Amino acid sequence: MPKKMKTPAAVAAEARARLHAMADHERALQVQKYFRETVRSFGVSSPQVRELARELHEATRKDWSVGDAVSLCDRLFPCPELEAKSVAALVLLRYQRKFPPSLFRKTHGWLKKNYLDNWAAVDIFCPQALGVLLARHPQLLSRIEEWAVEPSRWVRRASIVAFLKLVKRDEYLDAAYAMAARHFASHDDLVQKAAGWLLREAGKRDMGRLEKFLLAHGPAVPRTTLRYAIERFPRGKRQELLLRTKAQRK
User: Fold this and answer.
1) What is the dihedral of CA 83, 88, 90, 92, to 10 degrees?
2) Helix, coil or strand: residue 115
3) 167 within some domain
4) Is 76 within a domain?
């Protein structure tokens, strides 16, 4: 008799059961120190999470489509524990070569519903998933611009980190710089930090361009964003940029 296919519901239940079995209360308490908002955790280490995701994918890859992996995310992303979200994200990312453009709208929905409700959950999934989608479906570049003005901080952060992988290619630098600039008016530190992170990565391609960009925007660049963006400059240049972009007192 052929082996019965594991459904997304069954795999989600198995994932949660195995995470419960590996739970470490003391480690879970330590995880909270990295977040301002309340984050629930099993206290399972990152290597253990990655190994669990690998094993679940290996057990299902012959039978599953990308749609099944999306269904797994539909079941595990709403879970409160960070590791459950991470397992689902890591399984789905193994199907990135088959991502349909409809995953863009699905990801937007997950974010708006606060299923990915902390910086770690967003940063594990969105840079790679959205980066792949934007590269394969360029029509989505104009649609992600709209995310920059959404109320959800997680949608806005995702719109930035979506370009982290893409800035390794020159053809996406203009869009990445433009996306960072769209967030300069934000007062959300998690958004400001993400914008600085993106600019720092863009600067790896051309430090001169990053310097000119920062000087051109001057005081409009939030100081948190600026400090992240200039981390790879020599100390003297960092001090110069901090001074030259500082708002002048009237």
Assistant:
1) -170
2) coil
3) no
4) yes
CATH of the domain at 67: 1.25.10.90
Give the C-alpha separation, 135 to 103, whole Å.
13
What tens digit of pLDDT does each residue of 136-154 get?
Answer: 999 999 999 999 999 999 9
The count of residues in the chain is 250
Q: Which tens digits make up the pLDDT trace of 177-205?
A: 999 999 999 999 999 999 999 999 999 99
Residue 195 structure tokens: 């914008």
Q: Is residue 63 part of a domain?
A: yes
Sequence-separated contacts (24+) of 175-183 with Cβ below 8 Å: 175/141, 176/202, 177/202, 177/213, 178/145, 179/144, 179/145, 179/148, 180/225, 181/217, 182/145, 182/148, 182/149, 183/148, 183/156, 183/159, 183/225
For the entire predicted model, the pTM comes to: 0.93
Q: How far is CA 51 from each of CA 31, 39, 47, 56, 83, rounded to the nearest angstrom?
A: 19, 22, 6, 9, 12
Residue 3 reports pLDDT greater than 70? no
93 assigned to some structural domain: yes
Listed in sequence order, the residues at least 6 apart from 230 whose beta carbon sits closer than 8 Å to its beta carbon are: 200, 214, 237, 238, 241, 242
Full residue range of the structural domain in which residue 45 is found: 1-98
Domain count, the chain: 1
Give the position of tokens 């995701």: 53
